[in-house]
DNA sequence: CTTTTTCATGGTATCGGTATCAAAGCCATT
DNA sequence: AATGGCTTTGATACCGATACCATGAAAAAG
C-alpha cells in the first residue's frame, strides 16, 4: 500500500519522482513552467504519498506565516466569543490560522486568579512571526494605561500590524477601530422615561475600565441634560458577569434609601444576575423595577423575563476587525471607519412588551 | 536612543557584539560554555536591542513548534470555552501557544451556516507542524463516523500526537479520554422520583450525536429498570442551544397528550430555553413541571428559577486533556485514565430547594 | 541548415536559528 | 619549555522550502 510517511519533504518527493526539487516546488505552486506530463506525474506522487509542504519552511524565506494572533481577556465571555466566531470564519477564508491568547485579565468568576500579562503574549506573537495581531480587549480597555504596557504594545506595533477594537489611545503605533461604546445609553433612558420610570440606577461594569467609564458618563450626562436628579447611591459597579451583577444589585438595594424604578446594566449577563438579586429581595421585574442592558448576549431572549437590551452589532464589529487587520497586512488601506449604532431591542424586562405603563 | 529594529537576527547581534553567532546562540540558550564576561556583554546587547530569536527558525531544525492545535465545534458554547480556559492556562505554563480551530459544526443559532470541514484543519495542523492536537468535539461525536473522516484523522494521528476528549472510537491512532457522558442521568431521575415526579421527558441534544444518544439511552434504560412506563412522545431532540431548547420543548408540549411533570434537558442553555417555552404556555416551573439539566453552565445559578443540574467537572476535563496531550508529546505516558463522576447540583428548577413535594 | 527564441528543467544560495566539530587560549603539571 | 587538559570561541552543515540563475532541448525565425 502506497502509504504516507512521517517527515516527507520536497527532496524525498523529488527523489521518488525522478525530478529536481525545483520542479516539485513549481508543481506545488502552480508555476506555468512545467510540462503537462511532468506536472501530472509529480501530482500523482504527491497525492499518493499525501505530501504537503511545510509551512515552517515556507515561512522561513517568505517572511510570513499565514498566522494571526488574537488577544482577548476571557473567551468565555459571549462578547468575545461572538467576535471570535466571525474572525475565525474570515481568517480561514483568507488562508490564515489563529493563535488565540486568553489573558484572564478582568477576573471572571472562573476560579482562575492570576492573569497572564499581555506583554508575555506580545513577545510570543513577535517570536512566532505572526502576520498581524488583533486585540479585542484587556489591558487596553483601562482608563489609564501604564507606560510599560504602552511601550511593549508600541514595540510590537512597529514590527507587525496591530489592530485594536475599542477606543483610540494616543501615541500608539496601532490601528484603532473606535467602537461606539456609549451609544444607545440615551435611547435606553428615554425608553425608560417613556414608560414612566424616573429613578434609574446603573449596575455592573468595572471601575477604571473604559467601557464602564464611558457608559457611566453617558448615563449621568443624559440625566443631567434631562434635568433628572442624579443619585450616586443608585450606581453600583463590580464586573462583567452574572455573579457580579447579583452582587452589585444586592449592594445597590442595600445602600439606597428609595428603591429605584429602573436599572441599566452593563450587559446581559450582569442583567441576569441583577434580576436574580431583585427577585431574591422579593421584588418583581418589571412590575417593581425595570431592568435593561447595554450589551446583548444570545441568552437574553430566553431569560424570565426576556431582556430589553442594546444590540451592539458584534458580528459586524468582528468582521470589521479581521478585515481591517488583513487590509493592514496587505497594505491595502490606511484605517477603516466603522459606523455601528447600537440599537434598542425591546423585550419584557423593561415592562413595555408586557403592556405596563408606570406612574411616578 | 538605542532602539529596537525590525528583523533583528542572531547575525546582526553577533556583529554588534563582536563575537560569532555560535556564542550568541550559547548565551540565548544558557549554555555553560561561555565566559561570564562574554555572556554579560552579549546579554547587554540583546536587551538593548530587544532581540528575541525567531521561533520559525528554531522550529526549522528542532522539529517542534511549541504550538498546539485545539479543535472545537463552537467556542461560544460554554462547555467548550470553559475547557479552553483551562487548556490555555496550562499550555502557557508549559511554553505552548494554541491555534484554535472552530469548525462551526453542529449549528448553533449564530447565523453562520456552513461548517468548516475538520479535514481542512487536520491538514493545516500538519502543515503548520504543531506538536500535538486536541479535539474537544465535532465530527468525532457523531454516532457513525465516515470513512473519509476517519482516514484523515488517522493520517494525522500517525504523524503527531492527537488527544480526543469524548468516547473511544475503534481503530483510531489517537489517545482517547473517555468522558463519562451518561453518568448522572440516573441520579437525576431518582431525584425527580423522590420529589414525586414520574412522567419525565427528555429535551434537547441532536440526533446522531454521541452525547445525546448515550444520555437518551441511559434515560430510557433507567426508566426501564425502575419499571416506569416509557412514553416516546416525551422525547424531543433538536440541538444544544437555548433556541433549540425552546423549540424542542414547545414541540413536546404539543405532541404529547398528558403534560409531563418533569423534563431532563441536555444542558443548561437548553434548559433555559425549555423553561421559557413552558412559561410561555402559561405553566410554571417547578410548580407544574420540574426542569433539570445534564450539563452545568455558569449562568444556571442566576436563572429564574435557578437550575438543578449536573456538574460535569469541565475544569478537570480540560486540565486532563491538555496534560494528556503534553504527556503524549513528551512520551511520558501511554494514556491516562480519567475518573470524573458528574455530581448533582440541587437548586430551584426541580422544586426541591423551594420545599415542594409533588404527588401523582 | 543555422541562429534565435521559448520552454522546461536543474543547481544552488538563502531564510535564522542550532549542532557538531575544530581550534585557539589558558593554566597547571612534569 | 613541552605536554596535556580544560575552557572558550569560531566555522560550517543542516533543517525544507523558494528564488534566481544557468543550461539544455525543442520550436520558430532567418
TrEMBL record, chains A, B:
Output the superkingdom of the source species. Answer: Bacteria
HTH lacI-type domain sequence ranges: 8-62
Among SMART domains, the record links this protein to:
HTH_LACI
Name the CDD domains on file. HTH_LacI (cd01392), PBP1_LacI_sugar_binding-like (cd06267)
Q: Which residues form the HTH cro/C1-type domain?
A: 5-56
Record's keyword terms, sorted? DNA-binding, Transcription, Transcription regulation
As one GO molecular function, the record gives: transcription cis-regulatory region binding
Q: Name one Pfam family in it.
A: LacI
InterPro entries given in the database record: Cro/C1-type_HTH, HTH_LacI, LacI/GalR-like_sensor, Lambda_DNA-bd_dom_sf, Peripla_BP_I
Q: Which PANTHER family match?
A: ARABINOSE METABOLISM TRANSCRIPTIONAL REPRESSOR, LACI-RELATED TRANSCRIPTIONAL REPRESSOR
What is the protein name given in its UniProt record? LacI family DNA-binding transcriptional regulator
